[in-house]
Amino acid sequence: MRSLLVLVALSVSAVFAGLSGLHVFWAFGGQRGRRAAIPELHGKPLFRPGVGGTLVVACLLALAGMLVLERAGIGSGLLPPTVSRWGAWGVAAALMGRAVGDFNYVGFFKRRATTGFAGMDTRLYSPLALALGLGAGIVAWGGG
After folding, report:
1. Alpha-carbon distance 60 to 89, whole Å?
2. CB-based contacts of 98: which residues, under 8 Å, 6+ apart?
3. Which among 105, 101, 98, 103 is positioned nearest to 41, based on CA atoms?
């Protein structure tokens, strides 16, 4: 059982690391995939993330990966067990919430489902959020 927990934690953290790196790429001017990552209305993005905000998201994604590794007992050991336990539960809850969405532009239950972003959200982003949320939840439950 322990090896399965470690495998889940490593997998979830690797995805978080990749997503964090992608946000750093975007923050420093990278364009590939950026347009499909922002909800839109009538062909216009709903918001225009700046460098600072994009880097904050990159840091939060990296932190999420670290919390999952810590909770699985394979991190650096810098965090107290209580922090990694509640942090991993927080990561799981946030991602499950992201998968459900805002009932308008993002998530499985969005109403506006005809944009380029919406298609990617249905096929990739929301299922990924659900999978990461379940993985983080498994680690939060079984880690320690």
Report:
1. 15
2. 106, 107, 126, 129, 133
3. 105
* CA gap 13, 136 in Å, rounded: 9
> Which of 120, 129, 124, 130 lies closest to 38, judged by CA?
120
Q: What percent of the chain has pLDDT over 70?
A: 99
Task: Find, among 90, 88, 100, the residue nearest to 125 by Cα.
Answer: 100
> What does DSSP assign to residue 48?
-
Residue 108 Cα to chain centre, angstroms: 15
Question: Looking at the whole model, is its pTM more than 0.90?
Answer: yes
Q: Helix (H, G, I), strand (E, B), or coil: what is residue 115?
A: coil
How far apart are alpha carbons 92 and 98 in whole angstroms? 10
- Distance from chain centroid for Cα 53: 15
pLDDT tens profile 33-60: 888 899 998 889 999 999 999 999 999 9
Helix (H, G, I), strand (E, B) or coil at 24: helix
Distance CA(62)–CA(20), nearest Å, equals 6
DSSP element (H, E) containing 50? none
